[in-house]
Amino acid sequence: MGPLRGVKVVELAGIGPAPFACMMLAELGAEVLRIERPGGGIALGPPELELINRGRRSVALDLKNPAAIDAVLQLVAGADVLVEGFRPGVAERLGLGPEACHEVNPKLVYGRMTGWGQEGPLAQSAGHDIDYLALSGALHVIGRADGPPQVPANLLGDFAGGSLYLVVGVLAALVEARGSGRGQVVDAAIVDGAAHLTTMLLGVLAGGSWKQERGTNLLDTGAPFYDVYETSDGKFMAVGALEPQFYDELIRLLEVEAPDRYDVANWPDLRKLLAETFAQRTQAEWTEVFDGTDACVSPVLPLAADHPHLVARGTFVEKDGVRQAAPAPRFSRTPSELSEPPARAGQHTREALADWGVTGIDDLLDSGAAVQAD
Q1: Contact (CB, 8 A) for 297 and 239
Q2: Per-residue pLDDT for the chain (374 aa), expressed as one digit of tens each?
Q3: Nearest 5°: phi and psi at 318?
């Protein structure tokens, strides 16, 4: 299933953005084999709840053992893509860098996922999502006027600026390789992706219609008609009534007399009016008022909520007893699907190595170069 059916991917296990990218490739139909250290790596919970590891089998190999490196190169020889998320130079020291891999498979697309990129003054420095957002400017624009930058979990850096850019790069390189017969390295750096996401804002900043001051602009809570408002039960409604017709519908349904929104001097009074009005009813009551209208008002829901629209689309699904997001995007002819649940490190070592044509599996297991989990 999925448009990438027939594509084979070797994943050198890491944390965060690289696993998420490999999850997406698997859900798009690729066969992804996750290579993990014996015993697994850093985890935020039990293996069966590491949802970004879903969709692929796990092989445990000790990459400090030359026999394990040879096994990986056998896998690479039959793969279309390799993905790694090590610091620059680590894969080379292991003997699994691009040069070694292209020696056994010149058509291989070699995907590299880092925070700072493969070169530059910070390339060897540690960092996390929040650091890459900070340096790129993306963090600066999130927050209210006169307040500090607000941290958007790790959604904007790790997954938007990181994973999605790696997936786009890998897919583009795969298309190119089909014509040229040659693979290449995809250098996906979160700091680059996060900066790239600010492209529209950089344009309006240059044009003078965006200010560097946080929380003073049209889309950063500066405008009272693009903000969130607390309801009487302590929950929130999101208001995005930008266009005139949507704003008119907002005011009509709120049943208020509002000042002219085109005069910025009126914005403090308008914000006060909206806040006081939304505070008069519960979130459920306001949701009923705005449901199905063009006022662009929606309830702010918790993770994995059962909103009728999400239920109708199957946006969240129950799989293996865990509520999780369904694959996205959707395809009319080659649909994506959830397949393998998150695996324990080494759960499929013997069977997966055999399926991929690796030789000497018994010797690998006997020597400890490979480990089959119980």
Answers
A1: yes
A2: 899 999 999 999 998 899 999 999 999 999 999 999 998 887 778 888 999 999 999 999 999 999 999 999 999 999 999 999 999 999 999 999 999 999 999 999 999 999 999 999 999 999 999 999 999 999 999 999 999 999 999 999 999 999 999 999 999 999 999 999 999 999 999 999 999 999 999 999 999 999 999 999 999 999 999 999 999 999 999 999 999 999 999 999 999 999 999 999 999 999 999 999 999 999 999 999 999 999 999 999 999 999 999 999 999 999 989 999 999 999 999 999 898 899 999 999 999 999 999 999 999 999 999 999 98
A3: -95, 120
Question: For this structure, is 158 an active site residue?
Answer: yes
**From the candidates 128, 233, 291, 362, which is the catalytic residue?**
128
* Given 129, 158, 192, 227, the catalytic residue: 158
Rounded CA-CA distance 322/194 in Å is 31
Q: Is the pTM of this model over 0.70?
A: yes
Q: Which two tokens stand for residue 199?
A: 């492209």
DSSP codes of every residue in 199-265? HHHHHHHHTTSS-SSTT-STTTT-STTEEEEE-TTS-EEEEE--SHHHHHHHHHHHT-----TTSGG
Assigned token pair, 93: 């020291």
